[in-house]
Amino acid sequence: MKKSVLPMPHSDSSNLTAADLLKGDLQLTSPPAIYFELKKTLEDPYKSIVDAGKIIEKDPALSIRLLKLVNSAFFGFPSRIVTISHAITLIGTQELQNLVLSTLIIDRFSMLPNGMLSMHDFWAMSLRSALTARELAAHWDTDENDEAIFICGLLHEIGKLVFYRRIPELAREVGLLVESTDADEIKTERNIIGFDHYETGAELARLWKLPEIISETIALHAHPDSTGRYQTAGAIVRSANRIAKMAFFDTETDLSEIGISDEQLSDIIDKVHDQFEEIFNIFYPHR
Fold it and tell me: Which residue, 171, 151, 158, is CA-closest to 119?
């Protein structure tokens, strides 16, 4: 699929909006069809789990990866699962939808030209954040389920990929400035582009009509003091991202406000480390 880039000189970027980046690019404007077909089927009282399984089985590669995930340390089931229908009965319909959506979006955003951004590193960090958020949610007082928190963690940086796809020169300018001066990334994006990648990611999630918790946690990521229905989910994803970066880059950061003990934090980091490699190889087979 041909990539659509906005030929936008720096001086004109002040008139750009997040919505502008999502126009005229089929990859961005078209939501993942199988996910919505599956969602519609699962919400139909006259359809069964078998019908849902048939939708997934139309894509053999997707079916294989989902079965690998269900049989991985991500779930830790004691016996092997060999059919999609059986997998749905064990993990539930919401978890299935989240796994399908995660897999499809990673596939769609797996390639960027000219080495502008390492997709391997991007999705590795995103998956670490998602796994950490899933574990962290178990220690947090929240009504949100772990499955929803996982996909929020996985997709919270998706707007950055929109930047590199649609306005690569401006995105590269931001990246170089942050790297060379240690400037704040969000402030730098707003100064150069006019808005940040979290606003863009939230706009994409709304355009695709993804569950509200996804768009709202993305939008809240750069606004820790905001309140609202999803403030706790946003706080979990924000904290998970910091923990993942700390573990990945072996750096120190103040995590005292998270409200978990050092022992619990160490257990979370160890558990994510044990799960990560196997699960990443399934989610991101692009080597």
Answer: 158
pTM of the entire predicted model: 0.88
Identify which of 24, 42, 249, 242 has the alpha carbon closest to the alpha carbon of residue 136: 242
CATH architecture of 112-287: Orthogonal Bundle (1.10)
Q: What is the largest CA-CA distance in the chain?
A: 60
The set of residues, in sequence order, having a beta carbon less than 8 Å from that of 191 and lying 6+ positions away, is: none
What are the structural domain ranges in the chain? Answer: 30-108, 112-287
What is the structure's pLDDT at 220? 93
Distance CA 227, CA 219 (A): 12
Residue 257 pLDDT class (50, 70, 90 cuts): low
In our burial notation (b when 16+ CB lie closer than 10 A, e otherwise), range 217-256 reads bbbbbbeeeeeeebbbbbbbbbbbbbbbbbbeeeeeeeee
DSSP 157: T
208 vs 190: CA distance, rounded Å: 24
How large is the average pLDDT for residues 105-121?
A: 80
Radius of gyration of the chain from Cα atoms? 19
pLDDT single digits (tens) 170-206: 999 999 999 999 899 999 999 999 999 999 999 999 9
